[in-house]
Design a protein that fits this description.
Elements (H helix, E strand, L loop, with lengths): L1 H19 L1 E3 L8 E10 L2 E11 L5 E4 L2 E14 L2 E14 L2 H6 L2 E10 L2 E11 L2 E14 L8 E2 L3 E8 L9 E2 L2 E5 L4 E2 L5 E9 L9 E9 L5 E10 L5 E8 L6 E11 L4 E11 L26 H10 L6 H8 L4 H14 L10 H16 L11 H9 L4 E5 L8 E6 L6 E6 L8 E5 L11 H4 L4
Parallel strand pairs: 14-20
Antiparallel strand pairs: 1-4, 2-3, 3-7, 4-5, 5-6, 5-8, 8-9, 10-15, 11-13, 11-15, 12-13, 15-18, 16-17, 16-19, 19-20, 21-22, 22-23, 23-24
Helix pairs in contact: 3-5, 6-7
Length: 463
């Protein structure tokens, strides 16, 4: 009986909408912009500020008596392992009296604050159109929270903003802090309609013992290759133990693309420095830029978004043992740095064993093997992952057993690696022919590897 009653009520509700209201569907997909900034909270907590924004013309509206009503429901879940530490839900309404306003739209911005202890967290945010539950956007990414140090200078993350101005104290203003109204730009996007980038950050522990009377504040803008294209330095007196640093960047001269804002506080006497970096975008109509390569998935929030060109190339080379021929051809056609970053992000995403977790288990295992061979098998000016032993370790994992045979009167040094669970048991024989620690593969009974049944002749010393 209860089940039938619910159906009747739901149908009545839908009929009411059809009779008294007309649903206006948007022309664009719903896209929620999110940015996060970590500030000092207290001795045991970090303050995580979450900024969000969306376009009102991306919402569905119901028209009733000349009034257009819409909005989104937003939910945030912060987990540590399987434990849900924060669960937050709220509604952001959007109303208008003119259909033209609905069509043109505007940007709505908000902020939510959470206090978190040191640790690794999984952050998930979901936005749902209140008039069309099928219109959804969501973001999910890991967050690392570390307490700010107390024995040296420290700075918060950079908050990139569309406006900063001094106003009278207003506790009802969600954007008010430290005598300022700070309006975040959660999209991190600037261009002809918004040429001035404002930034806000906080410095901590400035009154350290044996410090200089002044500290240097350096602000730089780096292009996609890591090159400094804008730099500004100024010395500031140490007055309080903490300070607020604000400033602007005129982006008019910047071409369309991806940039990094880098801000540091340094003490030339104690030779200490604190650095914070934040990525932002420039869009200019008519220019070919790489913004569209960053428009999907969690790429924008991944470690690849800030990766410089040399790092991208190095990581691509590390994939040589598992990359397919088709993927090699795809990467070879890419010229834009952001497109290469996106390639790496998608490469690992396709191989993620369990996408429901915050950790890509396949990538983590692969990179752990790479790091191990870097430390263990480097030889003769050759990086560990480029050696034969390094390759075998990365591809097949650690052997079940290693037989080591040092140099003798009649034989060169060699090793036999045994894998018991591969192809009913396989061996790899590595020989150090030059005596310099570079053991090269001489024989294996693995069906896809080098085979030489007379490998023992290779280790014999000439007399």
């Amino acid at each position: 009986m209860k089940f039938k009653l619910i159906i009747i009520i739901s149908l009545s509700f839908l009929i009411a909408i059809n009779l008294f209201g007309q649903i206006i569907s948007p022309k664009h997909n719903l896209q929620l912009n999110v940015d996060l900034t970590r500030f000092f909270g207290d001795e045991s907590n970090v303050l995580l500020e979450t900024y969000y924004s969306f376009r009102t013309d991306e919402l569905s509206y119901i028209s009733n008596d000349g009034m257009f009503s819409g909005g989104i429901n937003i939910s945030v879940e912060i987990k540590q392992g399987e434990n849900v530490l924060e669960k937050d839900n709220w509604t952001v309404p959007s109303t208008a009296t003119d259909s033209a306003i609905v069509t043109i739209g505007k940007t709505l911005v908000g902020v939510r604050k959470y206090f978190l202890k040191s640790g690794e967290y999984d952050f998930k945010i979901i936005a749902i159109d209140i008039n069309n539950k099928d219109r959804v956007d969501s973001l999910r990414f890991p967050i690392n929270i570390s307490l700010f140090p107390t024995d040296r200078e420290a700075i918060s993350d950079i908050e990139i903003c569309s406006s900063i101005k001094q106003i009278p104290k207003d506790e009802n203003n969600i954007f008010y802090k430290n005598t300022l109204e700070v309006i975040p730009n959660a999209s991190l996007l600037f261009g002809p309609g918004l040429p001035i980038l404002y930034y806000y950050l906080e410095g901590y522990n400035l009154l350290q013992k044996e410090s200089s009377e002044e500290y240097m504040l350096k602000t730089s803008v780096l292009d996609a290759t890591g090159k400094e294209i804008i730099t500004h330095e100024k010395n500031k007196k140490r007055v309080n133990n903490s300070s607020v640093e604000i400033g602007t960047i005129n982006t008019t001269s910047l071409k369309g693309g991806t940039y990094t804002l880098k801000i540091s506080i340094s003490d030339t006497v104690r030779r200490t420095a604190a650095v914070s970096m934040k990525r932002f975008f420039i869009y200019k109509p008519g220019q070919i830029d790489s913004l569209r390569t960053l428009s999907s998935g969690g790429m924008v929030s991944s470690e690849y978004a800030l990766m410089f060109g040399s790092d991208v190339q190095e990581e691509y080379e590390l994939l040589s043992y598992i990359i397919t021929d088709a993927e090699k051809k795809q990467f070879g056609k890419l010229t834009e740095l952001d497109a290469k970053r996106k390639f790496l992000y998608d490469f690992w995403k396709r191989r993620d064993i369990d996408p429901s977790t915050t950790i890509n288990e396949f990538k983590e295992e692969y990179m752990q093997r790479v790091e191990y061979v870097k430390q263990t098998y480097s030889a003769s000016f050759k990086k560990g992952w480029k050696t034969d032993r390094g390759r075998v370790y990365i591809v097949y994992g650690p052997p079940d057993d290693i037989e080591r045979y040092p140099s003798s009167y009649d034989a060169e040094p060699y090793e036999i690696w045994n894998y018991n669970s591969i192809q009913n048991g396989v061996i790899f024989i590595f020989i150090d022919r030059a005596g310099q620690g570079d053991y090269r593969l001489g024989h294996s009974n693995h069906r896809n590897e080098l085979q030489d049944e007379n490998w023992y002749n290779q280790i014999k010393k000439a007399r």
